[in-house]
Amino acid sequence: MNNPLFLIAGYGITFMSIVAYLMRLRRLEDKARQAVEADDGRR
Amino acid sequence: MRAQRVLGGLSLVGVGLGTIAALFLVPADRLQGQVQRLLYVHVPVAWLAELSFFVVFLMSLLYLVQRKLTWDLVALAAAEVGVLCTSLTLILGSLWAKPIWGIWWTWDPRLTTTAILLIIYVGYLIVRSMTDDPDQRARWAAVIGVIGFVQVPIVYLSVFWWRSLHQPPSSPRSMATAFGAVLLLNLAAYTVAFTYLVLRRYRVAQINLELELRGPEEEP
């Protein structure tokens, strides 16, 4: 019950998931910004 | 944009402090030992999973009444973060269950209803990707957002309705002051982080919708 691996795994997975989601948001924001610039350039 | 940055900073500080308090300041549980510290993240993400699907429900209702696509975008943002939180709830629960119950997973009412909840909202996101028409997409999603919410009270009440291996809901009031205070701190910190993630996702969705509504450029 005192095996710290479960605790490390739990907190590790939580923080890694949040960071992965933040990276997804950054990717989506970049893509959206590029799409707006491309669209403005065409018009 | 400034509010978003402030929320981001607050989230980082809050979750950081909450984690330090949970891992180093509060004593370990007498019976469960160190692994009980998972409570300080398992309960907040479970609470946020339920909160996000309540937001989806509310925004879906508003969309069905007013037909404003803004509500649909908030629902999308909340559903995405909700799926993340529900997945984390199940993973953290499993990591807690192994040393305490001796098993990674069992078809217990609380666990099973939570897994069904996850499937409903993954389905919600899949249905959204099935059409390019913003109004049709919002309509289909809103119907699932309203009907799917029925599962949330079922998850909450499952530990009372059926004989469950899972303990009744934990809250800052159901435990000793030191444990309760740290749980409250983490609940607040993760709720701020949730607001930050939903806001950022909403902003991207808003830009994408504007682009969709502009439509293809007309030939001169």
Overall 3D geometry of chain A? rod-shaped
Order of helices and strands of chain A: H
- Major beta sheet summary of chain A: none
Distance between the termini of chain A: 64 Å
In total, the number of strands of chain B is 0
Q: From the alpha carbons, calculate the radius of gyration of chain A and give it in angstroms.
A: 19 Å
Task: Give a description of the structure.
The complex is a heterodimer of chains A (43) and B (220). Helices cover 91% and strands 0% of the residues of chain A. Chain A has 43 residues and is mainly alpha-helical. Chain A has one domain. The mean pLDDT of chain A is 91. Chain B has one domain. In chain B, helix 2 runs parallel beside helix 7 and helix 4 packs antiparallel against helix 6. The model of chain B has no long low-confidence stretch (mean pLDDT 93). The interface between A and B is medium-sized, with 25 and 35 residues.
Strand and helix layout:
The complex is a heterodimer of chains A (43) and B (220).
Chain A: H1 4-42
Chain B: H1 2-25, H2 39-66, H3 69-101, H4 109-128, H5 134-148, H6 151-161, H7 177-214
In short:
The complex is a heterodimer of chains A (43) and B (220). Chain A is mainly alpha-helical and 43 residues long.
What structural keywords apply?
heterodimer, A: 43 residues, mainly alpha, 1 helix, 0% strand, rod-shaped, B: 220 residues, 7 helices, 77% helix
